[in-house]
């Protein structure tokens, strides 16, 4: 059973393949990214990760406001596998 990956800010519900393609496209825009985990909350069959995502694009430019924005991703598990991913800003 393949459950969706969700990005509520953009009202997006993606299949595993769509999510993978979109993530690779997004990361391909950058020359360097440094994910900094600031908090982890573990719960019943779920983990929430709060993080910063400072990046430098292919031309060496940075967006200071975006780089300081805290992000959060919720991972839900079932049977030892990720069943749902939700990204929040």
Percent in strands: over 45%
Class from helix and strand fractions: alpha+beta
Number of beta-strand segments: 8
Oligomer classification: single chain
Q: What gap, in angstroms, lies between the N and C termini?
A: 27 Å
Question: What topology does this entry show?
Answer:
Blueprint: E1 5-7, E2 12-14, H1 16-27, E3 30-33, E4 36-43, E5 46-52, E6 55-57, H2 64-67, E7 71-78, E8 81-88
3D structure, described in words:
The radius of gyration is 14 Å and the shape is globular. The model has no long low-confidence stretch (mean pLDDT 81). It has helices at 16-27, 64-67; strands at residues 5-7, 12-14, 30-33, 36-43, 46-52, 55-57, 71-78, 81-88. β7 (71-78) and β8 form a beta hairpin. 18% of the residues lie in helices and 49% in strands. The protein is an alpha+beta fold. The strands form two sheets. The protein has a six-stranded mixed beta sheet. Strands 3-6 form a two-stranded antiparallel ribbon.
